[in-house]
Amino acid sequence: MTKANLLYPRKERVRKKQASPNFKAAGKSIEQRPESINKRDNSGDFEIDTVIQTRAKNECLLTLTDRKSRYQIIRLIPDKSADSVNQALRTILQEYQINSITADNGTEFSRLSDVFDPEHIYYAHPYSS
Q1: pLDDT tens track for 35-55
Q2: What is the mean pLDDT of residues 56-83?
Q3: In angstroms, what is the C-alpha Rg of the chain?
Q4: Average of pLDDT values for 90-97?
Q5: Spatial distance between the Cα atoms of 115 and 90, rounded to a whole number of angstroms
Q6: Per the record, where are the segments of Basic and acidic residues compositional bias (predicted)?
Q7: Is the dihedral of CA 98, 104, 108, 112 positive or negative?
Q8: What is the pTM of this model?
Q9: Residue 54 CB partners (closer than 8 Å, separation 6+)
Q10: Which of 14, 24, 31, 68 could serve as 40's disulfide partner, Cβ 3.0–4.6 Å?
Q11: Helices (DSSP H) in 39-125: which residue ranges?
């Protein structure tokens, strides 16, 4: 019998995504982040992410959120590429004091070290929020 023949077919379980065993982060792991950043002691430690807009063709939002004060810096960038992220980050760095950046493992954040000190860039675990 096939699933199509059944009166009440069972739903298949959705498999959870896992990182490949030979995955290597673009920089330092979130595990190496200093305790002062984890405890949110100081202002200036930011988390960076992109938000894709549904109606726009390629445009997306670059968001930086301060871990202590929850202050957000939001910029509209033309596409979700590393070049666009780095260009927007250059203009943000001229206006704001940023001590450290925590990013996910997206391709748009793979070249953050071109703009920001790689000693203070931390990458989250793959497939974790």
Answers
A1: 999 999 999 999 999 998 777
A2: 91
A3: 19
A4: 94
A5: 7
A6: 30-43
A7: positive
A8: 0.77
A9: none
A10: 68
A11: 82-95
